[in-house]
Amino acid sequence: MSHTSQKVATTPFEGQKPGTSGLRKHVPVFQQANYTENFVQCTLSAVDDLKGSTLVVGGDGRYYMKEAVAVIIRMAAANGVKKLIIGQNGVFSTPALSCVIRKRKANGGIILTASHNPGGPKGDFGIKYNTANGGPAPEGVTNKIFELTKTLTEYRICPDINMDIGQIGNKDFTVDGNAFTVEIVDSVEDYLGLMKEIFDFDSLKKLFSGSLKVVINAMHGVMGPYAKRIFLQELGAPDGTCINCEPKDDFGGHHPDPNLTYAKDLVDLLKKGEHGFGAAFDGDGDRNMILGLNGFFVTPSDSVAVIAANAKCIPYFATGKVKGLSRSMPTSGALDRVAQAEGLEFFEVPTGWKFFGNLMDASRLSICGEESFGTGSDHIREKDGLWAVLSWLSIMATRQLSVEEILKSHWGKYGRNFFTRYDYENVDSEPANKMMANLREMVSESNAANFINKEYSNSGKAYQVGKADDFEYTDPIDGSVSKKQGVRIIFKDGSRIIFRLSGTGSSGATVRMYIDSYEADESQHMKDAQEVLKPLVQIALEISQLRELTGRQEPTVIT
Ligand code: G1P
Ligand code: ZN
């Protein structure tokens, strides 16, 4: 069918600035006339070589996704895109979309998700652009998108293109005399193929035919179909292994965030002592939480360190050398110790997955993670929840140890980093900004003489400030500099207190406070992290004056 594109006059919307991970706003914001169209136009306009390009499109099934897919089809057609590859019914997990961009050598992709933020008519929606390497667009691109949103006067669209995105196959159009194709593909197929290349499915099958009972919780997010296909169909796991695996556009009214607060049901289930392994994913499938028998919790900071230390249990790494390791700045130092012991290159990068991509593309990074339940490797350019789960199961299958035994032996070898994160959600922006400004001033070079060597004590523990700054990162590959990435106070024993504001929230401010402390003494390793870190938490609250400034006495979430 032949179509002609149209130009529609529009005016800019304020605040269309992509955050840590794309543009995230409440659904009604995206539903405003032209709001989605404006942002999609600026995203497309920021793509190099847009004319004749191939883009991958999909999302986590949340409310408003299908409408957004329809808009993208009409606008991609009108902007000279040659081909769109779309997951059936518009569905792709974030890792799967990254995989498809790479496998099919697409020019980039658009992901429709607000990740772990709640969904539904009053929940959040999000649009994120990924580049040809399969990873989140670097700041250069997101800044360009934002600049374009400020001056946009018109967008291009083919309003009469309507198609069924539930039907697998190609649909061809002619738009302004040029060919335009939409290919609807199975959402799981390419990703499953990649997992089969990375892991030994036969050995994993044996694990599932043994006595280990596993439970996988998709939290009604996009991972349902992936989990069912891989665990039930491919690995022969018994029925009942996959729970909350029916995707819902509002995630059943819950926060689809796999942590101790929002996935408490899973923790309680594991505490019954029937399952030796449990895992949960977030709405778009890039985050994961790992639990062992009786609800034994693996911190994400430990999880990535364990995977790195046991990389040989994963066929993908068994043959070639692991190239390098990396973590985001607030993530605990557990991974650093593995890198040191293995003689591997190591990178500390700012929060957000986009910083890992350059290192991977330059073949200097294999395994990386963030404390925020993100773990992954250079098989794609996004964090990958299911990959982390299959990595853990591979380690268990090879070493024939329980989750807890694996952790104990890891701490025995490397020592333990106790870690916690306090989140204060929906704080008023003004006091939150004031608190950060005060902290920045405190750690500024001009104030260093007053602050360095200062001693703080609480509950009989004393800590002396060794180093303090507002974290700044220079990308070793392209030399780009990212400033103001979080205030760090590093004490002389290596313990760290970190403060930053979230870049993914859709309203108000979220203050994140991270505490990391190393313990070499094995007799202390089984202590409760919250107990161990209590003095440092109090010191962090004292230094920041968080309670006084924000009025918040307790955090919303403790991890
Ligand atoms: C949060 C996490 C960060 C992660 C991002 C996207 O960002 O802290 O590690 O990369 O979500 O999943 P924040 O809200 O802290 O900016
Ligand atoms: Zn996510």
Give the topology:
Layout: E1 2-3, E2 6-9, E3 23-26, H1 27-31, H2 35-45, E4 54-59, H3 65-78, E5 83-91, H4 94-103, E6 108-112, E7 124-131, H5 139-151, E8 154-157, E9 169-175, E10 178-185, H6 189-198, H7 201-209, E11 214-217, H8 223-234, E12 242-243, H9 264-271, E13 277-281, E14 288-292, E15 296-298, H10 300-309, H11 315-318, E16 324-328, H12 334-342, E17 345-349, H13 354-361, E18 367-370, E19 374-377, H14 385-399, H15 403-414, E20 416-427, H16 429-443, H17 448-451, E21 455-458, E22 461-470, E23 473-474, E24 481-482, E25 487-491, E26 496-501, E27 509-519, H18 529-544, H19 546-550, E28 557-558
Parallel strand pairs: 1-9, 4-5, 4-6, 5-10, 11-12, 11-13, 16-17, 16-18
Antiparallel strand pairs: 2-8, 3-7, 6-7, 9-10, 13-14, 14-15, 18-19, 20-27, 20-28, 21-22, 22-25, 23-24, 25-26, 26-27
Helix pairs in contact: 2-3, 2-5, 7-14, 10-12
